[in-house]
Design brief:
about 160 residues; alpha+beta; Nucleoside Triphosphate Pyrophosphohydrolase; 5 helices; about 30% helix
Length: about 160
């Protein structure tokens, strides 16, 4: 199980989400997977032994972005499943199947000065939610997660 968060900011009525482009060399992707642009919808990573899901997400946010003291919105959680090809440490090909559990959290004021991405990613940027969902390189499972987030945030904003 991997855990993470969709990090967002709002400008007017439009939420924007933090997107991260993966460094495929870091993940040892092979074949056509190595050439693919892989975009993450937020920082996430593997849960460590004796760690709660939320604690894992908070740690991963810090490790991948440098952001601390992130508080999750109540009421949003999304589990997504996906798979990809990779090689193990012995050079053997394998199929990786993952489940990621996402929460969401508002980016803190001044986040641009606070973010320092890890070597797992090439870059980060904020994208308005409707444009993010239409990015062609984004896998369907990640689009589904963003659509669920959009429905949640629009419902919360109407209250």
């Amino acid at each position: 199980m991997s855990c993470g968060a969709i990090l967002y900011a709002t400008s007017g009525n439009v939420p924007s989400v933090l997107l991260l482009e993966q460094d495929n060399a870091h993940y040892k992707r092979t074949g056509s997977e190595a050439k693919k642009v892989v975009i993450d919808i937020g920082p996430s990573g593997r849960k460590e032994k004796n760690e709660t899901d939320e604690a894992a997400a908070i740690r991963e946010i810090y490790e991948e972005t440098g952001l601390k003291d992130i508080g999750f919105d109540k009421g949003f959680r999304f589990d997504l499943k996906y798979e990809f090809n990779a090689t193990d440490d012995n050079g053997e090909g394998m199929r990786i199947m993952k489940t990621r559990r996402f929460w969401c959290a508002r980016l803190p004021e001044g986040y641009r000065q606070l973010i320092h991405i890890s070597n797992e990613h090439k870059r980060y940027w904020l994208e308005p939610i409707d444009k993010a969902i239409k990015i062609k390189e984004l896998e369907d499972s990640k689009k589904e997660a963003l659509e669920s987030f959009r429905a949640y945030i629009m419902k919360v904003k109407r209250r």
